[in-house]
Fold this sequence. Notes:
Layout: H1 6-41, H2 49-73, H3 78-97, H4 101-137
Amino acid sequence: MVLLDIGDVLLALGSNILILILIIVIVIVLVTFALQVGIKAVKGENTKLGPVFLTGLIMVIISFGISFGFGYLLPAYAWIGTIIALLLELFIIKLRHKTTYLGALGAIIIYIIILVIIIVVIGFIFSGFLVAMLSLFI
């Protein structure tokens, strides 16, 4: 029987929490970069990393609140919450980066395309790692 002292438990929990924080930071940087490229592509103003990060943060908070609210209170009409959240995201990008509604829509489309490309590339990278890890257990 192996007994773990509190130091071992805290070390194990601490390393997992640090890995989780690292993953969250990497995701935030990648999402901000994708949004920045989308806004630059439609010739929006204020495309430095800080304002784009704040725009993304505002978009996520508002979208989550509206989508969650509609999904929780009116589950049959959750799609309406998604449409309202998308319209508000367009409005936020239009106001914060001085572009048109079509420019904001273009920025969101480019943003989504870049995120899909990043997800596919990361999926290819880690699928080999996953297969190698699974082969150790089989």
